[in-house]
Design a protein that fits this description.
7-stranded parallel sheet; alpha/beta; Rossmann fold; 539 residues
Amino acid sequence: MAFSELLHPSLLRALTARNYTEPTPVQQAVLRPDAADRDLLVSAPTGSGKTVAYGLTLASGLLGDAERLGRAQQPLALIVAPTRELAQQVQHELEWLFADAGARVVSCVGGMDIRREQRLLSQGAHIVVGTPGRLADHLDQRHLHLSGVRTVVLDEADEMLDLGFREELELLLNATPPERRTLMFSATLPKPILTLARRYQHDALRLALSSENEPHADIEYRVFSIRARDSEHAVVNSLRYFDVSGALVFCSTREAVRHLHANLQERGFSAVALSGELNQNERNRALQALRDGRARVCIATDVAARGLDMPDVGLVIHADLPQNRQALLHRSGRTGRAGRKGLSLILAPAPQRGAVERLLASAKIKAVWAATPSADAIRARDEEKLVREIAAMAEAPTEEDLAVGRVLLAERSPEQLAAVLVRLRRELLPAPEVVDDPGSVRNETWQSKKEFPGKKFGAKKGYGAKKGFGAKKEFGAKKEFGAKKEFGAKKEFGAKKEFGVKKEFGAKKEFAGSTPFAVKKKTSWGKKRDKAGPKTRQF
């Protein structure tokens, strides 16, 4: 199905200018005839084209049969998003989509100048996009009027409920006309979302583009088993081993983000950090560095999982485990977008292996367990990459470069010059780290504890070594069982001793330093063994 069969002419021109030819599954679903002018409850994976999808559904309510929109007054459409980044991304998408239609799109998000937003609202807007808290503030201060709203869109509704915005959402929905059209888009549909939908939607059509039982088909999941102290080194080696244009690393706390960001920068990675403690200008600078390629690694808390406009994310690393399956899916959904393949990598410390297995099982994900890439494997890949890069550089040399090359060849051999070039390129790469395989370390430790050198009791490892029968502990006599003796070595059964000899009750021997009397009991092979500990009989 092509766009030309369905769309308003102004939107079709905008899509054509952006080289959109075929709708994505979610866009095709919302444009179905039975979805026209109905409330929609849509579950679709992150990165599936949801923003353009609900932008297309807004056209009928905004434009009708008109070619262009009239003068902006009160908003006709309200779009609510959980984060500043997502709201600003939605604003950008809708501005180019409705540019030919003359739509005025205003964003209202926390961290921006609220007085500027008030001026923009007073000048009129066809579409208002914002975060729940800031929109509620404008509504409370009577700068935002929702009596003329025809369509409300809740984007990433599950995330807004997780962030505690239920009251703000209900306030906004109650301020809109009852006959409005309500569209809910979400990656998952947990019970709180369904409850909200039953309360504020009427005869909603449910469109399931993502299955609760199947993971994203374009995302590969791997798990690296590590020791807890090797987490940072595992991140370093993973970033070095996988050749991707953009990587997103998730940490659970702001402090962890700061620490990992500082260490990666120290090692030479071009990285930025995103967390809730940054002001809007700092966040904008970090995002711009990612967009223009000055940084290729972003370390972030979970708040950045939604609305982060980071192009070409090929790798997602969970440096800290996600709290639940929804967090895992939302984090991983930042890669594998627009038909591209992506890799979601979970670092699993040995004590948390069970938690990782339960997390994957709850998300219905089959992951490949493997060891962290070694330093040798990274160097081998570096060699292959360096050969390709240097060969590509030599394809179109300038005459000036050739002249310098002839001078160098007169003084040095081609092998020496090539080696220098390789070294210069290699110095730009962060050094890989040595990471031990927790499985091999555990096996070696277990084997060392189970060895019996020489199979002798009393050897340096085994029974009688510092602790055992008779080692540095006398059971009423100076006879050591197994310490520096083998069975039968320099001793005959009963030699120099008669059964019953030196068996004295009340002798001056002490058992274990405090028990005054001990009973010696003959063994069946003629040796004497002390009955000690709790079995000692006292007189």
